[in-house]
Write a sequence for this structure.
């Protein structure tokens, strides 16, 4: 542990070599406090979705505000049990698109509830769960969603994510006590959320009324500055009372949105019809979602100068705007294109914003590019270099 030199969260703890992910516990706590208030007002319980964010080094700071974790695999449910789940009052939910025969016993050994993705998985494993008194749920696919990306749309055509046929679901109601519905993706529109929930109620209300709990999944962007959290709380409370169910939320991105940066150094500058810069990290290896969703990273700081810089819109791209590239050999390894206050120089430090969710859980060793360290700014302002990676980690990831 090293003492921090400054309290401004955009500034670089100089003793750590780039690249590194810098997580800000105060910003994380600010997010989970909003979740906590939403839960207090609505009666809902919030479970951190580990698939978005599993950097357990900050879980002790988050745990007071959340009810536990939910998972999408054996490894995640185990991590949830070992971290949040070590506290008696926390819940560890298990879900997977498909469990295998040889892992189900271990999954059940960590789970307080288990949600099966299909009726066939339910039928295959429900007896094992019941033998251990573990409540069983089923994922419901309402065939409608609030997702602007087809690749992330659980209700996409021919989706495998959950059961949709009402008659078939009704037939297994004696086997389940709850359902999970996850059909939002970074949805910051309360009215759209509410309308889609109303649609689910209209079609599945009689089923919901026979259950004890309903998880509404993640993807509700209620941490946006102007989101009507009170209205959402009221909506969830009414929903819960109407059907007599415990509501769960499974926030991933909302828990850590805006609470981390990826800090990099400019290794080279070039010119090819526009100014170019290459930094010591890679979007393919370290911020993969930018590539998948064809988005660009915001900049939070250049050389300790905090400046919130959005990528330029396509229409504003010009021969003056700078493209910042990653160092992998993927031709399109691009962090973004920006109108910068000054030309970049070799050695400049650039912190990319919103780098906590869906980044560390997806990082990989493509090109053998050095993996960013994980650095945590604690609530008291001190800096922990939580984890550094080296050649041995790279080598051990292969054989
Ligand atoms: C991805 C996912 C979440 C978390 O989604 P966020 O958009 O990160 O909030 C929650 N539940 C399920 C079932 C998911 O697949």
């Amino acid at each position: 542990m090293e003492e921090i030199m400054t309290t401004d969260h955009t500034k670089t703890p100089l003793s750590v070599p780039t690249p590194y992910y810098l997580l800000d516990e105060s910003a994380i706590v600010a997010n989970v406090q909003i979740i906590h208030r939403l839960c207090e007002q609505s009666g809902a319980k919030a479970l951190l979705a580990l698939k978005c964010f599993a950097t357990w080094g900050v879980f002790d700071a988050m745990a007071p505000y959340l009810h536990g974790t939910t998972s999408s695999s054996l490894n995640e449910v185990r991590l949830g049990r070992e971290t949040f789940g070590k506290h008696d009052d926390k819940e560890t939910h298990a879900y997977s698109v498909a469990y295998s025969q040889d892992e189900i016993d271990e999954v059940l050994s960590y789970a307080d509830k288990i949600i099966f993705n299909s009726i066939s998985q339910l039928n295959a494993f429900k007896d094992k769960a019941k033998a251990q008194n573990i409540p069983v749920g089923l994922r419901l696919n309402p065939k409608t969603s609030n997702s602007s990306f087809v690749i992330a749309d659980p209700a996409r055509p021919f989706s495998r994510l959950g059961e949709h046929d009402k008659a078939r679901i009704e037939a297994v109601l004696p086997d389940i006590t709850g359902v999970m519905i996850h059909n939002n993706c970074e949805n910051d529109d309360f009215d759209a959320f509410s309308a889609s929930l109303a649609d689910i109620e209209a079609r599945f209300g009689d089923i919901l009324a026979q259950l004890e709990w309903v998880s509404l999944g993640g993807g509700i962007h209620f941490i946006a500055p102007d989101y009507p959290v009170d209205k959402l709380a009221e909506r969830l409370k009414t929903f819960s009372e109407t059907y007599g169910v415990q509501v769960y939320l499974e926030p991933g991105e909302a828990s850590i949105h805006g609470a981390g940066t990826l800090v990099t150094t400019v290794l080279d500058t070039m010119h090819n019809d526009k100014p170019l810069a290459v930094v010591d990290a890679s979007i393919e290896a370290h911020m993969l979602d930018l590539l998948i969703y064809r988005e660009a990273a915001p900049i939070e700081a250049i050389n300790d100068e905090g400046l919130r810089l959005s990528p330029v819109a396509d229409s504003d791209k010009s021969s003056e705007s700078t493209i910042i590239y990653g160092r992998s050999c993927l031709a399109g390894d691009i962090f973004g294109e920006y109108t910068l206050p000054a030309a970049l120089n070799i050695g400049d430090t650039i912190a990319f914003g919103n780098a906590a969710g869906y980044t560390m859980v997806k990082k990989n060793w493509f090109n053998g590019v050095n993996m960013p360290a994980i650095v945590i700014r604690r609530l008291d302002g001190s800096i922990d270099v939580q984890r550094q990676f080296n050649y041995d980690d790279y080598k051990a990831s292969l054989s």
